[in-house]
Each structure stands twice: as C-alpha cells, then as structure tokens.
C-alpha cells in the first residue's frame, strides 16, 4: 500500500500547487491569500477539485485492497477499550485504599509530632529552670565571696567563671526573674577585673609572688590572662622609656645641676650650668644610676611574673598558665621583654647623643663609667637569677641567661656599640697623639727624651687602667695600644740609620748616626722594660689584653734587632776578614820550648782580632742596652767568630808542630778576645764545645783522631777531615783547591750549605780526585793518612744515611 500511495504523493510533490499541502507547517489562510492575490481563483478551485478526486480514488483503491486488515484493527480497538475500563476500576480501588490508610496514619503522626515538640519545649524549660536555679545559687555564693574581700577574690572569680560556663549557649535576657542576677554578674565581672588588674600591678611592683599569683588566678578565670599579662609588659616598657627619656633630658639635668649648685650656701646665686660642667656630669651619672636601678627592678618584676606563670595551674585541667600563653605564641615573656628593652635603650641612647652634644661628649668621654654601670646591672641580674628557686614541680626556675640561642649580655652591651666605637676611636687618637707629640721634633740629630717616653707610657697606662672595668673593653683598648706600639716602633725605625758608611763603619769611633741608633736602642729597651712592668702589675687584669700588648711588643724587639743587626753584620765581616789573614802567616815552623808554655804568644791576626773586638766593645757595644735582641746578637757574633776561627784553622796547610802550638795558643787567646763582649762562652753552645774539643785533637795522630769519642758528637766529621788534609801530601788537595776556589769563596759555600752531608760529598770529591791522580801516575800506594780519612768519611756517610 505504501508503494501505491507513493505515486500520488510524488505527483503532488512535483506540482507547485499540491506540494504546499505536504508541508508540516501548512497554513490554509496563507494558501488562500496567495490564491486571491494571483486572481486565478477558478483555476485554483479546479486544481483543488482535481486533487481531491485523485485522493478519493486513491483512498478507495487502498480500502478495497486492505479491507480485511482494517476490520481486524477495528475489532482490536474494542478489546483495548475493555482493558482500559478494567484498569480504571483498579486505579479507583487503589486510590480509595490509600485514602483509608492516610486517614489512619496522619492523625497519629500529628499527635506524635505535637507531643514531641511539647516534650522538647518542656525539657528546654526544665534546663533553663535548672540553670536559673543554679545561677541563683552561684550568685548568692558569689555575693558572699565578694564580701570576703581579697582573701576570697579567687573563689569569686571561679564562681563567675562557673556562671559564664552555665550561661554559655543560653539566652536569659528576656526572663525578668533573672535580670537582677545577670546585672549582679556583670557588676561583679567589672569589679573583679578591676581588682585583679590592680592586684597584679601592685604585686608586680612590690614583687609579692602571692599577690601576683592571686591576680593571675583571677584573670585566668575571667579569661583575661593573656591580654592583661601582655598589657603589663607593655606598660612596664613604657614606664622604662619615660624613665630613660627623663634621665637623658638635658633640661632636667640642668635643673638638677643648678639646684645642687645653688644649695651650696647663702648669698650665692644659682648660676646656669653647661653640659661640660662638673655639676652637670654629676647630675647625669646620678640619673644614670637611678636608671640602672629602674631597669634592674623592671627585669626582676618581669622575671618574677614569668616564674609565677610557670607555677600556677588551671585547677581543672592542671595546665600551667605559661603553657596556656605558649599556645598563642606568648610564652617567652622575659625574653620578649629583654629584646624590647635592649632595642629601646639603644634607640634612646642614640637619640639623646644625636640631640645633645653634651650628652654625646659625656658618654663617649666617660664610656668606661657607663659600661661599668651596665656591667653592674648584669651582675645584679645574674645574682638574682642565681637565687631563683625551683618551680613547684621540681623543675628549675625561669632561666634566660644561659640559653644557647639567646645571649642577653651581648645584647645589653650591643646597646652601647656606637658609643664604644666612638670611645675606642678617641682612645686610639689619644695614644697616637702622645706618640706624635713625643716624636714630632725628633730627627737623627734630635732624639726623643725620657720625658717624651714618659708621656707615651702615661697615656698607655691611663687607657689600660680606665678600660680595666670590663675585660672586653680592655681587649679592645689593648688592640689600640698594640697599634700605638707598632706606630712607635715604625717611627723609631724611620729615625734609625741602617745604611751608609756613617751607620756601618767599624774602624773609627762611633759616628753621630751610630750614637743616634744607640739612643734609640736605649729608648726602645726602656719602653719595653717599663711596658713589661706595667703588664706584670695590676694595671691590666685581663690576661688576653696583656697577651695582645705583649704580642705587639715583639715589634719593638724586631726594631731593636733591625737596628743592631747591620752593625753586627759589618763587625762579623771584619772579623772574618781578620781571621782570613791567618793564611798569610807561617804555620810550618818547628816547635820550640817557648811555644809549649801556657803564655805562648798568639799570632798577629789574633792580636789584631783582640784589638778590633775590644774597640767594638768600647765604642759600639758598651753604649747598647741589655736588650734580648742585643744579647742574642752579641752571642751570635761570638759564635760566628768561633766558627770562623775553627773553620779557617782547619784549612791551614802546611801545618807543622810549631803551627799546631800556635793554633792552640790562638784558640786560648780567642776566648780572651771574646771576653769583652760580656757573653759567657759556655752559653755559646756547640761552637765553643768544638773549639775546646779541637785543641787536644790537634796534637793527636790520625789513628787516635779516628778513634776519638769527640768525633761526630762534638767535632763534625767534615771539620776533622779538613784538619787531616793538612797531614796529607800536597797531591791530596783540600776541597776548595780541588774545586779551584779561594778560601773566602769556600767559606761562603760552607755558610750556604750547612748540611753535613753536602760538605762530606764535597770532601769525597776531593779524595776521589786524589785517587784518580794516583792511578794516572800509576802509583802503588796512597798516602798513610788517606785510609784513615776514607774510614772517617765512610763512617760519616753511613751515619748521614741512617
């Protein structure tokens, strides 16, 4: 049927008139209006009639073709209508049943809801009645406690706290019967708050722990503990700030100074004072004393407050009050107070110094006195903390002085840091000014006097004595003193003549430059001695400060050494030049009886050396002070002379028995030549021992020398080998001859190579050169002394390798 119908529909769809009737949004009025506007109504009607005829034909054909299906559908509609009627009857029965159930349930529910609401209201009413009854009891009890005075104030506060807990979450403002009680509670709250605050202030001021504890207990019950404690700390700081400002007020200090000046006697007018007057200074330090007392008292009050907070507990939870404050980050009351106090003191002192020149000069000029006041404050606080009892649970009392991350003493001293810096700058200026005044007119012709030196010592002693009030300040001043000592040493070194012929000549009498050097040596030595006396006394109580100054005095010793060393070096060079002339004398003469006597004459070079050393002692060394550097320099000069004598004596060739006697006599006269230097020869150490040990070895055979216990321990192997070269034939040349050196060059090489091993290697080279020479000439034997020398050399080399 669908296929047959589709032909008619396709025909309608292709026609412009019919297809309008196929649209879903077909509008009959619109189609009629369009037909009227086209003025072809008859044509449209004919067209519509034709279309209706086509549709009738198509409907007739469809009904004829499918009449059986249409009849079946018509009978099915009747069956559906019967089923719908049955369903409607069932729905009506169900609705009636639900209405009956609703009538049975709604009424009991409404009754139950009403009774439940009544019960809740009844319970609420009973709770309010119980609360009101309890409130009446609390108010009655609290009235009695309030009449008991201060002894029952804690109980009254606890009753008020209980009433607050009772009224929490309940509004009784509309109940007339309790309005009077509520008013009593409000009045009691205000009264207890006022009494608690006043008791806390009085207890803190009088340092009455019982009173403070009672006040804290009251404020805790009123839930005002934290704000009132913080308020008390702030008010204490503000009072201290006012006290500091009053103590540093120039106007107030002038009034005090004028008052004290005017009270000296009748008939004297009160003269205005200035900041530099003694009366003003006295008033200032009196005010500072009172200020320190106030600060100490405030610290004690805050410390006691924290102690009481650490003891008192909540009577219900048994939590310490201090722990309650720690929950909100306010547990370190004393530490917070100290931080604020240090900052306040630093700001106020800086402000006062900036606003008043008089105060700044007083504090900077008498800073040790101010520091002494602060140190006294700290010692008082330490004593108070040492007397702090343990808390109630056996734990230690409140401590803040010994905490690792908190250094209150450094913070207290830090408040004076700008003043300390200014004072140290002034101290250094005073020390340097004393040195500049003493050395301002000094030159190599005009040297500092004893009075100039006394002025420097007085300045140093004064600075150290004034700074002894504090070990830290003493160390800082000691650094200034050390800087001044370095300055003095540098200035004296500039005045000294260290170069040129006038300073280094050793043949004539002392020149002006050398006399100036001697005067500077005496000045530096006297300064060093008096400084040692000062440091050894009670002027410097700090060992660290004394150590700093002693370390600086080493620069004075260095300058003394730098002044004497050039002349000593020139003397040493002249001594070596004189000793070197021994090689121009004849030591190959045979022995005579006169040479064997103790008073045998010495060599010409030794007589010249004796005269030269005596001249140096009389003209140079006698004018030097007995300083450590001078003593050590003369000792080194004597050791050097002995070393040179022994060295060049070992190089003498040829050496006969008479020559040995002369060398032995020279050794004895050498001891007498060094006597004018004033140095005990026994203190010279190894050089003197070598000289004494070598004298008997001069007359022993090579075999005995090789077996001598002195060899190696006292007399070096290389030195003894040099002596044995003199007993050998000329073919066995000395080391300097084998190297084609002069004796002076060889002596310089020995000075540069102090290692015994290096010297033995050079000796071995000379001996190997001798062996090659013998082999080249095809000699059959070596000199008798050679095997002994070889044995000594091998033994020495073995010891060096070990």
In words, what does this structure look like?
By secondary structure, this protein is mostly helical. Among the domains are: 5-59, no CATH class; 419-560, Orthogonal Bundle (Tetracycline Repressor, domain 2), CATH 1.10.357; 585-699, no CATH class; 703-801. Helix content is 73%, strand content 0%. It contains 31 helices and no strands. It has helices spanning 2-14, 28-38, 41-65, 67-147, 153-166, 179-206, 209-221, 225-247, 250-262, 278-311, 321-327, 333-355, 357-365, 367-386, 408-414, 417-439, 450-466, 471-495, 501-504, 512-536, 543-580, 604-619, 628-650, 657-674, 686-697, 702-707, 717-725, 735-738, 743-752, 756-776, 785-801. Helix 22 (604-619) packs parallel to helix 24 (657-674). The termini are far apart. Residues 264-273, 390-398 and 593-598 have low confidence and may be disordered. It is found in: Golgi apparatus membrane. Residues 175-205 form a coiled coil. One of its GO terms (biological process) is intra-Golgi vesicle-mediated transport.
């Amino acid at each position: 049927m669908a296929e047959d119908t589709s032909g008619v529909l396709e025909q309608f769809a292709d026609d412009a008139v019919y297809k309008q009737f196929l649209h879903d949004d077909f509008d009959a009025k619109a189609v009629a209006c369009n037909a009227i506007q086209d003025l072809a109504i008859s044509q449209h009607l004919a067209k519509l009639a034709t279309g209706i005829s086509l549709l009738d034909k198509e409907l007739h054909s469809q009904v004829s073709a499918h009449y059986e299906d249409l009849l079946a559908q018509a009978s099915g509609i009747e069956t559906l209508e019967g089923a719908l009627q049955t369903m409607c009857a069932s729905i009506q029965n169900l609705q009636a049943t639900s209405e009956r159930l609703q009538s049975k349930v709604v009424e009991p529910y409404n009754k139950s809801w009403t009774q439940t609401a009544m019960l809740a209201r009844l319970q609420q009413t009973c709770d309010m009645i119980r609360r009101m009854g309890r409130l009446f009891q609390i108010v009655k009890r609290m009235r009695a406690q309030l009449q008991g005075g201060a002894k029952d104030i804690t109980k009254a506060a606890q009753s008020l706290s209980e009433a607050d807990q009772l009224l929490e979450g309940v509004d009784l403002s509309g109940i007339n019967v309790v309005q009077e009680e509520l008013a009593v509670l409000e009045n009691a709250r205000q009264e207890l708050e006022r009494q608690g605050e006043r008791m806390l202030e009085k207890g803190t001021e009088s340092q009455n722990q019982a009173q403070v504890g009672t006040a804290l207990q009251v404020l805790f019950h009123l839930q005002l503990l934290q704000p009132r404690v913080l308020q008390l700390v702030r008010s204490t700081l503000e009072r201290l700030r006012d006290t500091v400002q009053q103590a540093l007020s120039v106007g107030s200090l002038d009034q005090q100074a004028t008052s004290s000046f005017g009270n000296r006697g009748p008939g004297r007018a009160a003269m205005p004072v200035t900041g530099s007057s003694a009366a003003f200074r006295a008033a200032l330090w009196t005010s500072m004393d009172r200020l320190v007392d106030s600060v100490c008292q405030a610290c004690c009050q805050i410390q006691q407050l924290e102690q009481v907070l650490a003891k008192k507990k909540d009577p219900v939870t048994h939590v310490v009050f201090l722990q309650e404050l720690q929950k909100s980050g306010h547990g370190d009351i004393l530490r917070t107070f100290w931080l604020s106090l240090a900052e306040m003191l630093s700001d106020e002192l800086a402000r006062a110094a900036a606003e008043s020149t008089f105060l700044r000069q007083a504090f900077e000029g008498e800073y040790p006195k101010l520091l002494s006041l602060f140190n006294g404050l700290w010692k008082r606080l330490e004593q108070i903390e040492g007397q702090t009892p343990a808390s109630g649970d056996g734990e230690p009392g409140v401590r803040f002085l010994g905490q690792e991350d908190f250094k209150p003493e450094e913070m207290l001293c830090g408040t004076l840091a700008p003043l300390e810096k200014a004072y140290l700058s002034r101290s250094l200026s005073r020390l340097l000014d004393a040195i500049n005044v003493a050395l301002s007119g000094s030159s190599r012709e005009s040297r500092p006097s004893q009075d100039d030196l006394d002025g420097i010592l007085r300045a140093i002693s004064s600075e150290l004595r004034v700074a002894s009030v504090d070990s830290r300040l003493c160390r800082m001043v000691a650094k200034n003193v050390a800087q001044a000592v370095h300055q003095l040493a540098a200035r004296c070194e500039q005045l000294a003549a260290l170069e040129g012929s006038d300073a280094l000549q050793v043949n004539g009498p002392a020149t002006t430059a050398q006399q100036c050097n001697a005067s500077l040596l005496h000045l530096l030595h006297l300064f060093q001695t008096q400084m040692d006396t000062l440091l050894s006394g009670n002027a410097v109580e700090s060992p660290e400060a004394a150590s700093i100054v002693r370390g600086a005095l080493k620069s004075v010793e260095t300058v003394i050494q730098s002044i004497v060393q050039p002349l000593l070096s020139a003397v040493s060079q002249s001594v070596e030049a004189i000793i070197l002339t021994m090689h121009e004398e004849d030591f190959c003469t045979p022995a005579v009886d006169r040479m064997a006597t103790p008073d045998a004459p010495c060599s010409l070079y030794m007589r010249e050396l004796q005269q030269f050393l005596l001249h140096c002692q009389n003209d140079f060394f006698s004018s030097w002070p007995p300083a450590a550097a001078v003593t050590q320099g003369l000792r080194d000069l004597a050791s050097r002379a002995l070393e040179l004598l022994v060295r060049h004596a070992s190089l003498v060739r040829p050496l006969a028995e008479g020559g040995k006697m002369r060398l032995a006599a020279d050794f004895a006269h050498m001891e007498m030549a060094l006597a004018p230097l004033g140095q005990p020869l026994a203190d010279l150490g190894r050089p003197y021992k070598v000289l004494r040990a070598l004298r008997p070895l001069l007359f022993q055979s090579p075999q005995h020398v090789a077996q001598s216990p002195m060899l190696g321990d006292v007399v070096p192997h290389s030195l003894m080998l040099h002596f044995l070269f003199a007993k050998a034939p000329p073919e066995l040349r000395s080391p300097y001859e084998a190297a084609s050196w002069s004796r002076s060059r060889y002596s310089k090489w020995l000075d540069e190579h102090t290692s015994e091993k290096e010297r033995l290697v050079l000796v071995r080279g000379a001996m190997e050169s001798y062996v090659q020479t013998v082999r080249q000439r095809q000699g059959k034997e070596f000199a008798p002394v050679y095997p002994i020398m070889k044995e000594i050399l091998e033994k020495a080399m073995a010891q060096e390798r070990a």
